[in-house]
Amino acid sequence: MAALGSSGGYLGRWFAEGRQREAPWADLCQQTVPHILGATERIERIIELAPDVVTTRGDFKTHNIVRSSNGPVLVDWDTVRTDSAALEARRVAYIFGAGEPDRVKRILAAYASAGGDLTWAGPDLFVSVIRNHLQVLSEHLRVALGEAPAARS
Question: Residues 144, 150, 153, CA angle at the centre, nearest 5°?
Fold first, then answer.
């Protein structure tokens, strides 16, 4: 999250460079920077409090699961990291539940019935979804500004 830290860091530079290049997305800067920085601060606070830090796959997405004759296989292991188990469970439930509240609730109920604790995060249980969106935003900005190559499709 350092790229979006409370000082604005890279974010301010990215939007300034976008304005200089007259990129169509650059004008969103004035409207979005305060919201992005507020969300980033919220994420940083909740992550510091996480009592359930574990090693996690980090990139659970439907396209990273291949069906085999022995069952599903998780592929593309280059994003292993430490994270809060509850926050990662919520993000994964959101992805596999396609954002549909009933499906997400069923997935989280299964996680909790298997012993997962979702209670400590309270209303901040969604911050990993927000964090993922901010990560994608920063990746798009870096590609748009030529700082990184576009991801493989």
Answer: 135
Q: Which of 134, 137, 142 minimizes the C-alpha distance to 39? A: 134
Long-range contacts of 64-72 (CB under 8 A, 24+ apart): none
Nearest CA among 138, 145, 143, 152 for reference residue 33 = 138
Q: Could you list the beta-strand ranges (E) of 12-96.
A: 53-56, 65-68, 71-74, 81-84
103 by Cβ neighbours in 10 Å (0-12 / 13-18 / 19+) ranks as middle
Q: Which two tokens stand for residue 74?
A: 């998780």
Tokens of 116: 């997962």
Task: Kindly report the pTM of this predicted structure.
Answer: 0.73
pLDDT for 110-151, tens place per residue?
999 999 999 998 888 889 889 888 888 888 888 989 988 987
